[in-house]
Every structure is written in structure tokens, then in C-alpha cells.
Specification:
eight-stranded mixed beta sheet; 7 helices; 10 strands; alpha/beta
Length: about 230
């Protein structure tokens, strides 16, 4: 990418609620860029969101060949991963499998220019859900399959962590944006237990667009009351 060429962003999981919100927020950012959506079923992306995309690419995020084709077709510099399994807390490996596919592609010399931002969850990896009176342990048990999948997702990016940002969000809400977020460490108690999807998406867009592709960071984030 040169100073005059636009930043090209590929969103994996664009048809989900977080992906759609990131599309919305990218459309409102003023940095020169191209946005490309990647999902299994393009019909799940409403028309009002498709207008924000230079292209909508169909494929399986667990297939390295599909990921490689999507990066080639979009000319992407940054890949945002917000893939999940909806509100289900059942056992799933979709996050881990898709992470391995993307990391495998990023390891190839041809794609050493590609950076990634991964939307994960507090409680994954080395982080803990800390809520008083043992509530954190109850929540962690309820979400154990989701957190296991997110942990596998994070581990997959180990070989390319220098070009990867992992953001671990607390519980996601909708239509409750405060416009304020707080970053905190793995060993710290989160000041709140929820973050609105809009506030998370704005943080993601700022991270991607404000300073250009970065990496080597793992961040926990939550929403706080409006100032």
C-alpha cells in the first residue's frame, strides 16, 4: 500500500451483527479505503449494508483456499475477523478453524503484508472473567465452549502475532452505546461487564484506520458510562 492508494479492508464474518456494525462504522470513517465483505451467504447481508462494500465475496472462512482467493480478489491489507456462532453457547470450532485458515495464508511470503484484527472475548486465552461473589466462574462455565473456541482462535495467530491485534470484548449489547470504552489488563477486574456492539465497532475502525495496520497487541475492552 502506498500513501496515495486506499487501505483495503476485508471483513470475515460480515453478515453477523458485529460484522454489520463494523461495516456501518467503516462507512462513516473519513480515511480513504475500500471495504470488502466475506461470508458464506451474501443474501444475509441486507442491501443497505451492501452499499458500503466494494465487493461481497462468497466463501468458507475455514478454507485457506477461499481466504487466499478473497485476499487476492480484494487486494486486502487488513483482515477483520468477527466470526462466531450467533448467540449459541454450544460446542463449536468455527472460530478456531477459520483462524487457522487465515493464519496459514498470512504465513506465506506472498501475504506478509497482510495484518489482522481479531474480535475475541474476555475470558479467552490468558484472561479471566472477574466478577464478584463467584459470578465470574459461573459465567465462564456457561460460556466454556465459546471461550475454548476463542482460545483456539487466539493461539492460531501465534506465528503471525506481530501482524495481529486481538481485542477481547466483554458481553456484547445492542442499542446501548455510551461512546466510551475502557481497556484493561488480563489480571485486572473489568470496570463493567458489557460493551455495546457500536462502541466496539468504533474502536475496531479507529484501530484499523487511524494509524494504519498494526500488530503485536492483545487488548481487553469494555464499555463505560458516558462522561
Amino acid at each position: 500500500m502506498t500513501d496515495s492508494s486506499p487501505l483495503s479492508v476485508l471483513i470475515i464474518g460480515a453478515s453477523g451483527r458485529t460484522g454489520l456494525e463494523i461495516l456501518q462504522q467503516l462507512s462513516q470513517d473519513h480515511k480513504k479505503k475500500e471495504v470488502h465483505a466475506f461470508c458464506r451467504d451474501p443474501f444475509k447481508i441486507p442491501d443497505q449494508y451492501k452499499q458500503f462494500c466494494q465487493s461481497v465475496i462468497t466463501g468458507d472462512a475455514r478454507d485457506p483456499d477461499d481466504i487466499e482467493r478473497a485476499i487476492d480478489d480484494s487486494g486486502s491489507h487488513v483482515v477483520i475477523v468477527c466470526i462466531g456462532n450467533g448467540d449459541s453457547v454450544a460446542k463449536s470450532s468455527v472460530r478456531t478453524a477459520s483462524a487457522r485458515a487465515l493464519a496459514d495464508v498470512m504465513e506465506k511470503p506472498k501475504y506478509h503484508h497482510v495484518h489482522a484484527l481479531i474480535v475475541s472475548s474476555t475470558g479467552a486465552g490468558t484472561s479471566k472473567i472477574k466478577v464478584g461473589m463467584g459470578v465470574g466462574k459461573i459465567i465462564s462455565f456457561h460460556l466454556r465452549h465459546v471461550l475454548q473456541d476463542h482460545t483456539g482462535q487466539e493461539k492460531a495467530f501465534g506465528p503471525v502475532i506481530d501482524r495481529t491485534v486481538i481485542v477481547r470484548a466483554t458481553a456484547l449489547t445492542d442499542n446501548k452505546a455510551t461512546g466510551n470504552v475502557k481497556e484493561f489488563g488480563d489480571k485486572e477486574k473489568s470496570p463493567t461487564i458489557k460493551i455495546d456492539r457500536t462502541d466496539l465497532a468504533k474502536w475496531v475502525v479507529k484501530e484499523v484506520c487511524a494509524s494504519g495496520p498494526v500488530g503485536g497487541k492483545v487488548i481487553n475492552i469494555t464499555g463505560i458510562k458516558a462522561k
